[in-house]
Amino acid sequence: MSHTEVVTRIAPSPTGYMHIGTARTALFNWLFARKHGGTFLLRVEDTDRARSTPEATEAIYRGMTWLGLDWDGDTVSQFARADRHAEVAHQMLADGAAYKCFSTQDEIAAFREAARAEGRSTLFRSPWRDADPATHPDAPFAIRVKAPQEGATVIKDKVQGDVTIQNSELDDMICLRSDGTPTYMLAVVVDDHDMGITHVIRGDDHLANAARQMSVYNAMGWDVPVWAHIPLIHGPDGKKLSKRHGALGVEEYQAMGYPAAAMRNYLARLGWSHGDDEFFTDAQARDWFDLDGIGRSPARFDLKKLENLSGQHMAVADDAALVAEIEAYLAASGQQELSDHQRNGLESAMYCLKGGAKSFGQLVDKARFVLKSRPMEPDEKSAKALDDVSRGILQQLTPHLQNASWNRDLLEEVVAQVAEQNGTKMGKLAQPLRAVLAGRTVSPSVFDMMMVLGREETLLRIQDVTGT
């Protein structure tokens, strides 16, 4: 593919959030462009003025940025290019590849109703296609492209294979409405051509559109891009993904505490595969990604798989990068931001926090011992471990901890000795220690917590409970 540069695009409509399906399509386009050293562009299809607000466009930027899908150059606004779209429609008209259609919407609706009643095809064939210009009324007209009427159109698709559509099923698509505004179907083609798009990778709900859009490419003598129509995402029940299956917006997954790397890995595996590989890095995804690996059947969204990948990505992530991403998660989910002291504590504890956690929420929960300050109020469950006997043993432990070298192995020995002197096992002493240091029954190992907190803070927390 070296002779022509690969140029891909994502073209979302600003609807107030970035849909998970759009994110997956964006990822495929980004991976394909990055693999081939090509260009990945962003176009906002903001022709629907009611829905296209600056806030909705911002939501797309935020979703793309969180996912780490950097695009090249400036964002293209479809609405801003309306004059160019109209110019192409008039050019096709001048070339005889399109015609003026004076049929009104009422006439077309009446035709369809009659056709339905008679069981005929409702495909509208404009009576104006071959009309003599001398018979044209002085009235508003739409511009329709002349679609081929004989033979078949073959969509050569990298995912679906060759898809043949009989030209008798194609209507003469309206390119410019009678009020002079371009249709979405024309705008997409003109934008893709002007932006130099070589590969159109999009949802297979656009497959039928490809045949209609090819009429415009052919009328203008433009190169048709490589098509790759990817199956939609379904819920676990095999029905099209919808609100009842859970969150649909990408940003909701950030607020739910999934790392961006896990989300990229997971979305890449939705409908694309590389052997049996489930867990992979960004670099591997870029190396491996190809259109041949995309399956034809819909992918099923599975939160359990996302959680598993999430845990694996957190376990191998760089500590400082994880802290930064956790701060973004706290902001996205409306939680309190970290102080410098908490941030430093979190980073120093990261080695004993990131194993076993499947989301940032779980990790922050485990980090409670280092994020909360004294006095640690033990919750109901962990307070049960703090009876008079265990308080007495903690009192005995205190002077040993004051004098011990502060390293993990020696601390384990000291605690084991004090437990033995009291005729109990180390595990039995670990629960009251955990209650004192973390205030709950689930936390990292007590020795990890002691190492992270340091001698002074550990002793102060014990003292808060034993009162000595």
UniProtKB/TrEMBL annotation:
Segments forming domain Glutamyl/glutaminyl-tRNA synthetase class Ib catalytic: 5-307
Name of the molecule in the record: Glutamate--tRNA ligase
Reaction catalysed by this enzyme: tRNA(Glu) + L-glutamate + ATP = L-glutamyl-tRNA(Glu) + AMP + diphosphate
Similarity comment: family membership: Belongs to the class-I aminoacyl-tRNA synthetase family. Glutamate--tRNA ligase type 1 subfamily.
EC number, UniProt record: 6.1.1.17
Motif ('HIGH' region): 12-22
Organism field: Candidatus Rhodobacter oscarellae
Pfam families on file: Anticodon_2 (PF19269), tRNA-synt_1c (PF00749)
Annotated TM spans: none
Entry GO terms, CC: cytosol
